[in-house]
Amino acid sequence: MTGKAIRPTNSNSGVSAVASVTLKKLVEPLKVVNMDNKEYSLMMEIVLFNPESSCLRNREVVRAHRKRSHISLKEYTDKHSSGDLGGLGSSCVSSPRSSRSVQRSPSN
């Protein structure tokens, strides 16, 4: 995390608006977790590499990269966790599918 401010210009004002929303909704809440740079970069890879994006040519490549990042994050946090939060790896990234699958209960 560099902490550099993104200043809007006429040519990138749309990008700046997206960056601002991303910072407010994703990055700011993660500061509470006290992630180090490695955890942060792996988490951003998981968040930003969306295999469901409509502009992708090969979703399987992105899906595989995201899964590798997810596994790396879990392994890293399990190894480096101080235990005060139970490890980001064990609480937030318990399985690659947990972030996108919703279990449905059988209807009666």
Strand content: under 5%
> pLDDT under 50 segments (min length 5)?
94-108
Q: Count the strands?
A: 0
Gyration radius (Cα, Å) is 16 Å
Distance between the termini: 49 Å
- Helix percent band: 40-55%
Alpha plus pi helix count: 4
Question: H/E series, N to C?
Answer: HHHH
Shape: flat
Major sheet summary line: none
Q: Which structural class fits the helix and strand makeup? A: mainly alpha
pLDDT averaged over residues: 70
What can you tell me about this protein's structure?
With 108 residues, the chain is mainly alpha-helical. The protein has a domain of 63 residues. The protein contains four helices and no strands. The chain is flat.
Compact description:
This protein has 108 residues and is mainly α. 52% of the residues lie in helices and 0% in strands.
SSE arrangement:
Blueprint: H1 13-30, H2 37-48, H3 59-80, H4 88-91
What characteristics describe this protein?
108 residues, mainly alpha, 4 helices, receptor, NHR-like_dom_sf
